[in-house]
Amino acid sequence: TPNIIPEPTIAAATPSACDKPVEDVDYEGNDIKFTQRSNSDDCCDDCTKTPGCVAYVWTAWNDGTCFLKSNADKSVPKKGAKAAKVANDCTKTPGCVAYVWTAWNDGTCFLKSNADKSVPKKGAKAAKVVF
Question: What does DSSP say about strands 55-59 and 108-112: parallel, antiparallel, or unpaired?
Fold first, then answer.
């Protein structure tokens, strides 16, 4: 399983390994396990550290719970839930070794075949994939 290692950027921001959470959505079924977290921001870390986890759903149940998912194909409305998928476009693309995310066009991920040279770009978030 590849690991994503953040690279420093001029904004000192690191990319999230997960997509931005979607409000009021649940990925039905396919629970691997659940973890206690007071906010949805911590669920991504739990998911990326759990083998087979491809998405999570956070709810306020029990003072905050992350439901880690093995599949996120079926989404259903769920009031108050926050759902996100692991951002793995690069790991699924042959030859991709890194990516750069920018806010261009409401958020765009540029997949890279080489990460030998980096340059500062305000607001950009970059990461290398390590296998």
Answer: unpaired
Residues spanned by CATH 3.50.4.10 within the chain? 22-85
Of 130, 119, 124, nearest to 101 (Cα)? 124
With tokens 């093995």, the residue in question is: 70
**How much is the average pLDDT of 56-80?**
94
CA distance 19 to 36: 20
Contacts from 99-105 at CB under 8 Å and sequence distance 24+?
A: 99/15, 99/126, 99/127, 99/129, 100/124, 100/125, 100/126, 101/15, 101/125, 101/126
Query: 46-61 pLDDT, tens per residue?
Result: 988 888 888 999 999 9
Residue 101 vs residue 34, higher pLDDT: 34
Against a cut of 0.90, is the pTM above it? no
Give the architecture (CATH level 2) of 22-85: 3-Layer(bba) Sandwich (3.50)
